Amino acid sequence: MLRELKERLAAGASAEEMVFSLFEKIEKSDLNAYTNLSEDLALERAREFDKAPWSGLLAGVPIAIKSSISTRGIETNCSSRILEGYIPPYDAHVIERLKQEGAIILGKTNMDEFAMGTSTETSYFGPTRNPWDTGRVPGGSSGGSAAAVAAGEAPCALGSDTGGSIRCPASFCGIVGLKPTYGLVSRYGLVSYANSLEQIGPLALSVEDAALVAEVIAGHDPRDSTSVKSDGGYLPSLDGGVEGLVCGVPKEYFGEGVDPVVEKAVLDAISKLEELGASWKEVSLPSTKYALSAYYIIAMSEASSNLARFDGLRYGLRLGADKDWHTTFSEIRAAGFGPEVKRRILIGTYALSAGYYGRYYLKALKVRTLIKQDFERALSAGGADVLVTPTMPFPAFKIGERIEDPLSLYMADVFTVPINLAGVPAISLPCGFADGLPIGLQIIGRHFDEVGVLRTAKAYEDATPYHKFVPREVV
Ligand code: GLN
């Protein structure tokens, strides 16, 4: 899709008109996919492009950015009251890269507050709606980015994925979402939720588009000590096919708790890959049952530490009369954070406290090692090349259905969080429908084998029609 868009621009189509019509569509939309738009900056840049078109991998391409990624001069509030009005004085590394390659930033997308959630319902600015059924959630936490792309309110977007936040909304909104290997994309300028788990990645309408955006944002950045050098090369190897590929099918990702329609769609996808020349074998990831507990202990512990910086003195919310520091700190945090964020800070602080550290946090770290070893074993030489699973155990649920029951929301992440604990790459792409709602197929690869993941996804996409469907309201 982005290729055609670039071709149209190269043939003389006006970037300004393109950007203008996107803003018109966004203004009319009832999805609440964006928290704030950067209309003036975007139109100005589009006009400059029309006057003297530049080159670059994303020359003239409009893009939506999750509200947790810092953009110079554009409000970045993480869908939290505590950061409402905060305008970063600098760009995240990924934003610098997008700009260098010629992209045009449309605005910031809605998300679960500080990326804590699976449904985009914990946003201070209200939930985003799923374009396939506006009574349902778009998934989370990058729900605004996914809904915008699925509804044609942006041709592509960036999200961040700590425990599934790119793949879950991609699955619920019927689009493609890639969580890169930990370390492939710089986190400089990403507002941290749980920094040992998260990565920025693309949400797009096709595997090729996701590969293109990944190509732009991947690569070493000295400002993120966990970032590594990347060879890129995703686009040239996309069409390599799956002849001879071995797909591992982890038995723990099927059966109880998985919607039978979802399970059937994923098993059909595996047969399709077989038809295309791959083979499959059952593998086991025995520590899967501990993944959710370990993930939530680690994520909440890191969150309790990362969110300590929001003290009301440096960014965002002010409450008027200056009182002593302790009172100001607690009043601003009480008023500025929503209930899910508070819950996580409290649990995380408890898990890290002197008396309980060994019982919870340390234990979770040990489980993390076991999970990593599960993936290394399943994906070792002589084992599988990629793993194929459902992204989510069920399609998008109704707005309000789970939000009062945090545990049932956490459980929805059962197939996405292990991937972040292990640090491996994974993509979600459409593989069918259940009562008109999209189903996501997850393809997981070895560390830094984005090439293998994308190539497998592309072969499947080329052989199936699911990515071509668009939501009814969007036609
Ligand atoms: N749903 C998970 C959580 O709430 C994952 C969120 C994310 O990836 N940012 O932590």
How are helices and strands ordered from N to C? HHEHEHEHEHEEHEHEHHHHEHHEEH
CATH superfamily caption of the domain at 2-239 and 427-474: Amidase signature (AS) domain
Task: List the strand order in the largest sheet.
Answer: 1-3-2-4-6-5-10-11-9-7-8
Unreliable residue runs = none
The CATH topology of the domain at 2-239 and 427-474 is what? Amidase signature (AS) enzymes
Q: What's the rounded overall pLDDT mean?
A: 96
Taking the alpha carbons of the first and last residues, their distance comes to 16 Å
In terms of DSSP E residues, the strand content is: 5-15%
Under CATH at level 1, the class of the domain at 2-239 and 427-474 stands as Alpha Beta
How would you explain this protein's 3D organization?
The protein is of the alpha/beta class and 475 residues long. It has a domain of 286 residues: Amidase signature (AS) enzymes (Alpha-Beta Complex), CATH 3.90.1300. The protein contains 15 helices and eleven strands. It has an eleven-stranded mixed beta sheet, sandwiched between helices. Strand 2, helix 4 and strand 3 form a beta-alpha-beta unit. It is globular, with a radius of gyration of 21 Å. The structure holds glutamine. Glutamine binds next to loops.
